[in-house]
UniProtKB/TrEMBL annotation:
CDD domains: INT_XerDC_C. Residues 1-90 form the Core-binding (CB) domain. This is Tyrosine recombinase XerD. Residues 111-294 form the Tyr recombinase domain. Transmembrane segments: none annotated. The active site is at 151, 174, 246, 249, 272, 281 (o-(3'-phospho-dna)-tyrosine intermediate). Belongs to the 'phage' integrase family. XerD subfamily. Keywords: Cell cycle, Cell division, Chromosome partition, Cytoplasm, DNA integration, DNA recombination, DNA-binding. It comes from the Bacteria.
């Protein structure tokens, strides 16, 4: 069996049996294409011939290559993919020893999520005010993303039927896991205005689709479209900081925790499988509290 055949078997496994998203499977495919290409250059045609030394050499190659150098996070992800691949080979009986068992990605520095202030979010949302079709759509999109903490893929994947009784939305996250998230009054008003006054106009320009957010030609809005919409709104608002779809998600979580929300409630709203992922936001809140304390307490300095 060739390395390529083993990779195909692994990708089928994670897609069908583990139910991972198409984006995750595509990322695995890209990582293993790099790994398989390197093995071929080394003359390795069967994964059974791979040893811990082979994998160590591969890790060194990734960390030192001059062409298309990897960031620390990309290197960690790629090595994690390779480890999962070899673990699968052991479980399937293709190899007798997991050669990647001791392969460890580099330790990444902990990075705090970048959030913008409540005032900056308000300015960003105000930059979408208007009565044009695009304005109504953009307002509904950004209000919904900030109200729910939706990932950009979740927002563009929404269908009209996913808005339930106007005040609740059903988001489909990683691994096709669904969660119900409430919509605040501002998001409700923006989405309702879009559905009544803008979406029918956009829908008439294209083929019938259940998608909630539509592009100017009537097709489902793309993730790239959302990036451009948010970037344009940030420029109009003159925020002076880089804003992305994930910035709204980070701000959603940070503002909830700063307002007193329980971390496990925020975990559910974000769709995190582990509370440890959500707890990174508590560090942001702690930093904010520390700054306020130092500036406000008479004996803090």
């Amino acid at each position: 069996m060739t390395v390529a055949a083993d990779v195909d078997a692994f990708l089928r496994h994670v897609a069908i049996e583990r139910g991972l998203s198409a984006n995750t499977v595509a990322a695995y495919r890209r990582d293993l294409a790099v790994y398989g290409g390197w093995l071929e250059q080394q003359g390795v045609v069967d994964v059974a011939a791979v040893t811990p030394a082979t994998l160590s050499a591969f890790a060194v190659h990734l960390g030192t290559r001059q062409e298309s150098p990897l960031t620390a996070s990309s290197l960690a992800r790629m090595l994690s993919t390779v480890r999962g691949f070899h673990r699968f080979l052991l479980e399937e009986g293709r190899v007798e020893v997991d050669a990647a068992r001791d392969l460890r990605p580099p330790k990444l520095p902990s990075r705090l999520p970048k959030a913008i202030t409540v005032e900056q979010v308000s300015a960003l949302l105000a930059a979408t005010d208007g009565d044009e079709v695009a304005d109504l759509r953009d307002k509904a999109l950004l209000e919904l993303m900030y109200a729910t903490g939706a990932r950009v893929s979740e927002a563009v994947g929404l269908n009209v039927d996913d808005v339930i009784d106007t005040d609740v939305v059903r988001l489909t996250g990683k691994g096709s896991k669904q969660r119900i998230v409430p919509l605040g009054s501002y998001a409700q008003a923006a989405v309702s205005a879009y559905l009544v006054r803008a979406r029918p106009v956009l829908s008439a320009r294209g083929r019938a689709t259940p998608a909630l957010f539509l592009g100017m030609r009537g097709a489902r809005l793309s993730r790239q479209n959302v990036w451009l919409i948010i970037r344009a709104a940030a420029e109009r608002a003159k925020l002076g900081v880089e804003v992305s779809p994930h910035t709204l998600r980070h701000s959603f979580a940070t503002h909830l925790l700063a307002g007193g929300a329980d971390v496990r409630v925020v975990q559910e709203l974000l769709g995190h499988s582990s509370v440890a992922t959500t707890q990174i936001y508590t560090l942001v809140t702690a930093d904010t509290l520390r700054d306020v304390y130092v500036s406000a307490h008479p004996r803090a300095r």
